Design the sequence.
């Protein structure tokens, strides 16, 4: 497994105001509205439910036991809380779920990745475009998961988290900064590698995990199709979102002199 620690920000020209605001918004929702994950009623009402998005109708259920497969392929029974009434149009849950998380480890991991990779993409696109790009990638990632799950056993299982949007940011990072040096922890060793190695290996892991998981499921509670869909969306939209802006890519970035 590869874990990013930092990257080369020496040529960044602006303060990542929007990226910081997105991170702050995620923590605000998690602490205030989700109450560090203990407010189950809020979470089960504002998460994205594939069946709701496909049908356009709110789904309210009782708590029930569901059989799911873990990463080893073993079946296990999990108590799934019932879906609560959604007081907003169900389609808006695609946006609300982007700022919600399932636990402390979930939000810390997501925000760390966004902190490392998001500032450079905001610098490339500009603040307004970056915000639109982030939200659009999150929406497309969520829809990828919805349509992959709508006909399967997870049709009524809520999904949440910023990882789909962050996957889009990483897709853009790979396209715009393939040679930028990223400091990573890999095989218990800290090393500097090009972004195409750090981000590329991460994406290959998502592809492999998504391929080996059953259709319409989230292996280990991870919606890999959202990661894959978000990454592809980000890679495809990266160039259009920097159109008309002065962009040097990694031409001005040295592989020596790190500042992160």
Sequence:
């Amino acid at each position: 497994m590869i874990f990013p620690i930092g990257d080369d920000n020496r040529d960044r020209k602006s303060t990542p105001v929007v990226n910081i605001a997105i991170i702050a918004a995620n923590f605000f929702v998690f602490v205030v509205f989700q109450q560090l994950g203990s407010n189950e009623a809020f979470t089960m009402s504002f998460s994205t439910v594939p069946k709701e998005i496909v049908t356009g109708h709110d789904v309210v259920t009782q708590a029930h036991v569901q059989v799911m497969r873990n990463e080893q392929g073993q079946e296990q029974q999990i108590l799934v809380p019932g879906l609560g009434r959604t007081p907003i149009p169900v389609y808006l849950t695609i946006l609300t779920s982007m700022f919600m998380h399932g636990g402390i480890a979930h939000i810390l991991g997501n925000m760390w990745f966004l902190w490392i990779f998001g500032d450079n993409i905001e610098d490339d696109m500009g603040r307004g475009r970056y915000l639109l790009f982030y939200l659009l990638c999150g929406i497309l990632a969520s829809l990828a998961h919805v349509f992959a799950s709508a006909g399967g056993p997870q049709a009524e299982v809520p999904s949440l988290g910023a990882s789909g949007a962050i996957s889009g940011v990483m897709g853009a990072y790979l396209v715009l900064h393939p040679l930028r040096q990223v400091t990573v922890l890999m095989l218990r060793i800290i090393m500097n590698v090009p972004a195409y190695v750090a981000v590329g290996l991460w994406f290959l892991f998502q592809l492999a995990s998504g391929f080996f998981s059953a259709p319409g499921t989230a292996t280990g509670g991870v919606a890999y199709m959202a990661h894959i869909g978000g990454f592809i969306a980000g890679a495809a939209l990266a160039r259009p979102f920097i159109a008309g802006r002065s962009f040097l890519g990694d031409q001005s970035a040295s592989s020596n002199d790190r500042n992160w």
Summary: Residues 215-220, 252-260 have pLDDT under 50 and may be disordered.
